[in-house]
Automatic annotation (TrEMBL):
Keywords: Cell membrane, Membrane, Transmembrane, Transmembrane helix
Transmembrane segments: 38-61, 68-88, 94-116, 128-153, 159-177, 202-224, 236-256, 268-286, 292-316, 328-348, 354-374
Protein species of origin: Mesorhizobium captivum
The protein, known as: MFS transporter
Pfam families: MFS_1 (PF07690)
Length: 393
């Protein structure tokens, strides 16, 4: 368990620095002399760094010791935070954010593989959930704390605190990660890494990931105006609702990990269906504050309960060549987030109101249910079994 804690700390650090920028964006824009919309490229640039740079770096470092690579990536994160804190202008800040994002994308892919290698086969889902919980806890604790620090001492102080957190993560991995962590996953050639993506369990899981992001971020991107304009909540209550949503997400990710270890595909199909139902419920109760808040909390739990089974399935079916596939997990999430936000914007620009967003999400989740059922039936008919990890050389 201690090695997983080390991986969790770094995941918490990466997650916080990705999301905290939203909390201090006006201050960053003013400090760097740019408009808030221009400063928004610090968010989209980070997402692009994860989606594109992460997989490329994972392929380039396939033969590097997993422990050494994780430590180097966290060192890059730590230096990146210091560079952001010292950034003299917007361009240098953007470049440092993108560089950190590349390390972020590679880190989560490698950390997932290492995490499942450190536990028994029947504990893989929980190991994945520990890493994922670093992201949920970063939203519940890290982002509000980082935003508060920025409000008190300026946005540069936020990045200095992130830098200190990186130092803690490095120390934890040096002390707690075994030297042989992930050594059982022998690096495969590029052709083999690409070939395993053709397994139906892998590409259907990536489709499920995309549908999950549409179901989640199609609404979550616009959750604040939805709660204000449709539900009629006072703006001062929005942080509390988001905090409750984050608590639900943290509980959900741990529950999803346990379900993945118990009955992966039946659990995944059931949660996907429940999420479709919950989005319909959100549509129905959105004008009513108390039911809407309860629904938002449950919805947050279901969103993150789905993530662990999907990622556990991808890792299980790419165990013999996992570098590229594992790095595509954070890439897939970020591409899905971008597509979901764009779909929501297109719906709003077309004249549909905020209340229509959960309807689109429900339809996406029903597509996910159909894909998951078809994939499981295909797997049963073929009687295929997940590959064993390639033996270490």
């Amino acid at each position: 368990m201690l090695p997983l804690i080390a991986l969790f700390i770094a995941a918490f650090a990466f997650g916080t620095t990705e999301f905290v920028i939203a909390g201090v964006l006006p201050e960053v824009a003013e400090g760097l002399g740019v408009s808030v919309p221009t400063a928004g490229y610090l968010v989209s640039g980070y997402a692009c760094g994860i989606a594109i740079g992460g997989p490329l770096l994972a392929l380039a470092t396939g033969r590097v010791s997993r422990k050494a690579l994780l430590i180097v990536l966290t060192i890059a994160f730590t230096l990146g935070q210091a560079a952001c804190a010292l950034a003299p202008d917007f361009t240098s800040m953007l470049l440092m954010r993108i560089a950190t994002a590349v390390a972020h994308g590679c880190y989560f892919g490698v950390a997932m593989v290492v995490a499942v290698s450190l536990v028994r086969e029947d504990q893989r889902g929980r190991a994945v959930a520990v890493i994922l919980s670093g992201l949920t806890v970063s939203n519940v604790i890290g982002v509000p704390a980082g935003t508060a620090i920025g409000g008190l001492w300026g946005w540069r102080a936020t990045f200095w605190v992130m830098c200190a957190l990186g130092v803690v993560a490095i120390a934890a991995m040096l002390a707690l990660l075994p030297r042989t962590a992930g050594a059982a996953n022998r690096p495969a050639g590029l052709a083999r890494e690409v070939r395993v993506l053709g397994r139906q369990q892998v590409w259907t899981s990536l489709i499920l990931m995309l549908m999950l992001m549409i179901g989640q971020f199609g609404l979550f991107t616009y959750i604040t105006p939805t709660l204000i304009e449709v539900t009629g909540l006072d703006e001062s209550l929005i942080p509390i609702v988001l905090l409750l949503n984050g608590v639900g997400a943290t509980i959900g990710v741990l529950l999803g990990g346990k379900l993945a270890d118990w009955k992966l595909m039946p659990s995944l199909i059931a949660i996907l269906f429940l999420q479709a139902v919950m989005l319909v419920v959100i549509y129905a109760v959105s004008p009513y504050p108390v039911p809407m808040i309860v629904a938002i909390v449950i919805w947050g739990g279901l969103n993150f309960a789905i993530g662990a089974p999907i990622q556990t399935r991808i890792l299980a079916w790419t165990a013999d060549a996992s570098n590229l596939a594992s790095s595509l997990i954070p890439s897939g999430f970020n591409v899905g987030i971008a597509l979901a936000a764009s779909l929501g914007a297109a719906m709003l620009n077309a004249g549909f109101g905020y209340r229509s967003l959960p309807v689109a999400g429900a339809l996406a989740m029903l597509v996910a249910v159909a894909v998951a059922v078809a994939s499981q039936a295909w797997e049963w008919r073929s009687r295929a079994t997940p590959p064993l990890p390639a033996a270490a050389e």
